[in-house]
Specification:
single chain; 170 residues; mainly alpha; 7 helices; flat
């Protein structure tokens, strides 16, 4: 066996997978930052403008992606690579696919149904998909969290979220 093959900790066919994923992750961060800078900055008396949170998310994505790209191109050791293959083999991808479909549905339900209604339902369904056997508790926790976030953004920060079909009186 040559020294070149012994030094490579990667199994054949696994060279580009993590690298492509890390680069796509970085591209997503750059796209989010581009969209954030495209948001018009209005002259307001608020400390936090409409760009603040998208810029924060985009910067976080870019930093995380830069770390991922560095690690992916630097390579992992053989033990770590074997562990990743074993975890991928044992992973049940059905809940991941269902959660992804649920998030897409949430995206479409958000505007017509409203933020706090859609989010409460999303939380309940996600808990159920992930194995919770207490739907009433999950619905209550989802409702409380959704209303708390709604009031934080809509009422306190002035960042209006979709009110939906049931408008809150307060």
């Amino acid at each position: 066996m040559s020294t070149q093959q012994e030094a490579s900790p990667e199994a054949p066919g696994t060279f580009w997978g993590p690298r492509v994923a890390a680069l796509l992750f970085l591209a997503a961060g750059v796209i989010v930052l581009g969209w954030a800078f495209a948001i018009p900055e209005r002259a307001t008396d608020q400390d936090v403008g409409p760009r603040a949170f998208p810029l924060l998310v985009g910067a976080g994505l870019c930093v995380s992606a830069a770390i991922s790209v560095t690690q992916a191109f630097r390579g992992a050791d053989r033990e770590q690579n074997e562990q990743a293959h074993e975890e991928a083999r044992l992973t049940d991808w059905r809940p991941v696919a269902v959660l992804l479909a649920l998030l897409v549905g949430y995206l479409f339900a958000l505007s017509p149904l409203g933020y706090w209604q859609s989010t409460a339902v999303l939380f309940t369904l996600v808990a159920r998909i992930l194995g919770s056997a207490r739907p009433l508790r999950d619905a209550l926790v989802g409702l409380v969290l959704a209303l708390a976030v709604y009031f934080l953004f809509d009422r306190l920060l002035g960042i209006h979220l979709p009110p939906g079909i049931i408008r809150l009186a307060f």
